[in-house]
Amino acid sequence: MAPIPNPGSAVGKLAAALRTARARKGLSRREIALKAGTSIGTVQRAESGRDLPTLETAQAFAAACHLDVERIEALWRKAAQRGRNQPLTRARPLPQIVDTAELGLALRQAWELNGCPSADEMERRARARAHDFVPLSRSTAWRIRERDQSVTSEKQLFAYLVACQEPEKRFPLWSDTWHRVRQAKSRGDGTGEARRQWLEAAEAAQHLREAGLTPLERFPGRLAPWTVRCRRRVCRQVSRIRYADIVASAYGCRICAGIIA
After folding, report:
1. Among positive and negative, which fits the CA dihedral 13, 114, 231, 91?
2. How crowded is the C-beta side of 182, counted as CA atoms within 13 Å?
3. Fewer beta carbons below 10 Å: N end or C end of the chain?
4. Residue 241: phi, psi to the nearest 5?
């Protein structure tokens, strides 16, 4: 196997991770190709360190080797971004977004962070998931990413994110952001009460993550039941908690703590 040309680069680090994983599993390139549903040539190029594979290829390779897919996705996005000549669009973190302009910047940034796919590729990816969300034409994808058009529905938002290959675990956070922007717009309030509410929701979400939980729906308030998932790999169970109880106690996941049978 030829050495990686620049092992210290982001592309080189991704290639090295894929090579190492395949070697540890004792798999041939042909076996990886069969497991990943791709060609031997594609596997060879992914391992070469010369060209950045598609995100689909990197994800399939990782799954075939039982790698941490999130780690491979992070390496891929870093490599994709460093391959760009233009600076990354600056956007607020999703929990801080309260208006349409800020959301447009975040959607543009998501496209950039995921390798700047063409409008044709975005249409193809969205079409493959149209039964879950809605179709996304190439012209609509282009207008949204260029901030010439706002996202008109939650399903269209998800279709755009699918087209960008944004991780689906982040969809609830995007959904919260989109609904918050709509509510602020309907009230004609981009600051004041809307900003206070997202600050409270952002603080609650951060507190939840620190307690080892992931929110699966929008923040319902301190006393209402909140659907969450345990982040521990040995648990990963879904439960309903009250944020006030998390604040008042040292417990995170009630299932892990034995509070919920």
Report:
1. positive
2. 12
3. C
4. -130, 170
Retrieve residue 22's tokens: 């395949």
Among residues of the chain, what percentage have pLDDT more than 70?
90
Residue 225 burial (CB count, 10 A): 13
Q: Could you read off the pLDDT of 203-234 as tens digits, one per residue?
A: 788 778 888 888 888 888 888 888 888 888 88
Is the full-model pTM beyond 0.90? Answer: no
Residues across the chain: 261
| Cα(83)–Cα(88) distance, integer angstroms | 11
User: Cα 226–102–193 angle (5° rounding)?
Assistant: 55
Q: What percent of the chain has pLDDT over 90?
A: 30
* Cα gap 258→33, rounded to integer Å: 43
